[in-house]
Write a structure and sequence with these properties.
This protein has 20 helices and ten strands. The protein is an alpha+beta fold and about 625 residues long. The chain has four domains: about 80 residues, 2-Layer Sandwich (Alpha-Beta Plaits); about 100 residues, no CATH class; about 70 residues, Alpha-Beta Plaits (2-Layer Sandwich); about 290 residues, no CATH class. Strands 1, 2, 3, 8, 9 and 10 form a six-stranded antiparallel beta sheet that branches. The protein is extended.
């Protein structure tokens, strides 16, 4: 619970004739991660036969499935059925036809895009009203271009050249005009003169008649091409209805076989044997050994390297976090930030305890707790598992429970006390209990939040001490213990000497322990430790943000209640204020949810976790496959 699963390493040595059996054994066991074997004495095994051909066919199947629509038959196939379908003439024929259709569709779409580009170019010349087919000549060239208004005078002068046979123009843009000029073919001097005078040439499309007729022909050609695309798409859709499930199962089978064929590249290889190494949970070793002897052979050589052996040799095994499904969102956030190393404390359960408490103290409103629960529930339904928002919504939902509890403690119900809320509904003089209202108990709550910071920092350093001792780093462990004493006894000294919170008899022993802790820390960390001292004090004071965030939400709620509460004495105006009042509180609750989530996570990951958590581990990824379209 508080540490990742203990992992061991196994080494399996067997004859190469049993290589396929070993891979099948790993897959059926499903709880071992293959480790790439590395040795200066021996190399690695080649992939199993057929890997390249399998990958090439996978690419083709991906292309086919991307074009096929429809779900096809819903029944899953067995591995045998998928393999037989891949070998069948029906599959080959359907595959070849689907690929041919895909190629033809790409060709037709390319022709449509080309026709649309032609229409766009020809449309620029449609307002000239010229039949370009009638002015085509082997000795005359039509050049087109635009001239900026500032160059019009110079260009008009250039049109007077002897080589200019004909000229027409139309307004093109605000600051320029479009021009057509007829010149003798090959008269580069005239063309150069026009360009020098400001003509910015543009490509002249091939137009055999009027631009309007050319555009209509292109539109007819596009309609014809789209008809062909529609017919081919229908054919592909029908093929999808008949074969998509079979192709999907075949693709999944082929992908699994390709992964299995590539697996031996991670094994060591001698002349006649292979060496396989894998990580697995230490508690599952017995089960693995039985499976290996059943699937590979009774005489297979299996060597176990225990978790303590790996720790002594500083070999980092992958990390497997094992928690109840209810903790899944908190485990997700731990992995999202950084996977813990296998040898350090797993902060998931710690986050589960501290984050909802910090969050609840910040929102701290009974009704906002209910609103946040409902919003979180809605977000869970809107965003499916697998994305970011679903686990975040689950954390919001769980954190709504302490929010409701703190709402009762703080006596806040949408910014009102329970007595004030009852008065709004005509029930006067009913006081069920006396809560700790945040606006009138700022000093008390500030003290509580600072003490929460002290407790959290002290616990963080204590956990850091446990981590360091577990790793055998005694020097680091003493430093962490020193920091624990500095935070704990320093708080007792300040509380007693400055605020008289404790009896004076506590002062002298606390001061002595503070000095001892400071000396122990400085001895291990040197001057850098003293430099970090203000930072640790800042971390403690940073917990005052719990109160600050809570007060801001409370003040906004009070303003809403004063300005927009739809009381009966406001008459018809109450009908206008009611939706505004509800929306305002829902929006304020959402803002409180968002801000409290960010600040609560920050207090954990920045202030708290930095005292004991390193991270940087590699998540355990066993050699197994998820089958969506196959039965087994």
């Amino acid at each position: 619970m508080f540490f990742p699963e203990k992992m061991c390493k196994v080494r399996v040595i067997e004859r190469k004739a049993s290589l396929r059996k070993a891979i099948d054994c790993l897959e059926s066991f499903g709880g071992a991660e293959i480790k790439r074997f590395s040795s200066e004495e021996i190399g690695n095994c080649p992939a199993l036969e057929g890997l390249q051909a399998g990958n090439e066919r996978l690419v083709r199947l991906d292309a086919i499935l991307s074009g096929m629509k429809g779900n096809g038959q819903r029944q899953k196939l067995t591995r045998k059925e998928a393999a037989e379908f891949l070998k069948s003439g029906e599959a080959r024929q359907a595959e070849e036809r689907a690929i041919a259709i895909g190629i033809e569709l790409e060709k037709l779409q390319s022709e449509i895009d080309s026709a649309k580009e032609d229409i766009a170019r020809v449309r620029e010349f449609s307002s000239f009203g010229i039949d370009f087919g009638k002015i085509q000549s082997g000795s005359i060239e039509i050049i087109a271009g635009t001239v900026q208004k500032k160059d019009e005078a110079k260009f008009e002068k250039a049109l007077g050249q002897e080589g200019v046979l004909k000229h027409t123009q139309k307004p093109s843009m605000k600051n320029s005009g479009m021009h057509l000029v007829a010149v003798l073919k090959g008269d580069e001097a005239t063309i150069h003169g026009l360009s020098t005078a400001g003509l910015e040439r543009m490509p002249m499309p091939k137009i055999n008649g009027t631009p309007q007729a050319e555009i209509k022909d292109a539109e007819k050609r596009i309609a014809s091409l789209q008809g062909k695309i529609g017919a081919l798409s229908k054919e592909l859709a029908k093929a999808g209805e008949r074969h998509r499930a079979q192709f999907a199962a075949a693709r999944e089978h082929l992908s699994i076989e390709a992964e299995k064929a590539a697996a031996p590249q991670n094994f060591g290889s001698t002349g006649h044997s292979f060496v396989l190494e894998a990580y697995l949970p230490e508690k599952n070793y017995g089960e693995f050994e039985r499976a290996a002897r059943e699937r590979i052979g009774e005489k297979v050589f299996i060597q176990k390297f225990s978790s303590s052996h790996l720790a002594r040799h500083h070999e980092e095994a992958p990390t497997l976090l094992s928690h109840h499904p209810l903790l899944e969102p908190f485990e997700w956030l731990t992995k999202f930030m950084s996977v813990p190393k296998g040898s350090e404390i797993d902060p998931t359960v710690i986050f589960l305890i501290f984050f909802p408490v910090f969050y609840g103290m910040m929102v701290g409103d009974f009704i906002y707790g209910i609103i946040s629960f409902l919003i979180a529930r809605w977000l869970m339904q809107k965003f499916p598992p697998g994305g970011i928002m679903n686990p975040v919504a689950k954390m919001w939902m769980w954190s709504a429970i302490p929010t409701i509890i703190f709402g009762v403690i703080f006596d806040e119900y949408a910014g009102m006390s329970h007595m004030h809320l009852l008065e709004k509904f005509g029930l006067h003089g009913i006081e069920l209990y006396t809560g700790i209202e945040r606006l009138t108990n700022i000093n008390l709550l500030l003290t509580v939040t600072i003490l929460a910071g002290v407790f959290t920092m002290a616990l963080g350093f204590l956990l850091g001490f446990v981590n360091a001792m577990k790793h055998g780093e005694k020097k680091h462990a003493i430093a962490k213990l020193g920091w624990f004493g500095i935070v704990t006894f320093g708080t007792l000294v300040v509380s007693t000497a400055m605020f008289k919170a404790l009896p004076e008899v506590v002062l002298l022993p606390s001061a002595a322990m503070f000095v001892v802790s400071l000396i122990a820390m400085v001895k291990q960390e040197g001057v850098m430790g003293l430099i970090e001292l203000p930072g640790v004090m800042g971390n403690v004071l940073s917990f005052a943000r719990i109160l600050a965030v809570g007060l801001s939400g409370t003040v906004i709620a009070l303003i809403l209640n004063d300005m927009a509460f739809p009381s009966p004495d406001k008459g018809l105006m109450a009908l206008v204020l009611l939706p505004l009042f509800i929306f305002g509180h829902v929006f304020n609750a959402f803002l409180a949810m968002f801000e409290s989530f960010i600040q609560g996570a920050r207090l954990n990951y920045v202030e708290f976790y930095s005292k004991f958590f390193e991270g940087g581990g590699k998540e355990f990824t066993p050699f197994k496959f998820e089958r969506k379209y196959l039965k087994d």
